Amino acid sequence: MTPTPSTAPSTVDHLADSVSKLGIGTAYGDPVDIGGTKVTPVAVTWFGFGAGPENDGDAATAGGGGGASIPIGVYQPGVDGPAFKPNLIALLAVSIPVLWVGGRALTSIIKALKK
Asked: Domain tally for the chain?
C-alpha cells in the first residue's frame, strides 16, 4: 500500500498540520523502486507572497512570490506498515528556519514577561 497523507499519519503529517498557517506543508512523490523496495519520497514545501507600493509614495504596486521544496525522507514498507525514514541532513536544513522563528518568538515572550 502506498502511503498518502490520509493513510499514513506520522510526525511529518502532524508537523505539516501545525505549520500550515505559515505556508509550510508536505509533498509526497510518486513511488520509486530502489533496490527492489518501493519507497515514497516526502518533501517539506513552503511558499510566500507579498504585494505593496513599489516605492514610498508611489501609486504603482508590485508583488511577488516564491516557494521551495526540500526532500526530507521516504516512506518505506515495514513490518508494521509504512515507516518514515528521514534524511537527517535535509531535516537539519529544514529545521534551521523553524528554530530561528521559535527562538525569536521565545525572546519576545521573555521580554514581554519581564515588563
From this structure: 1
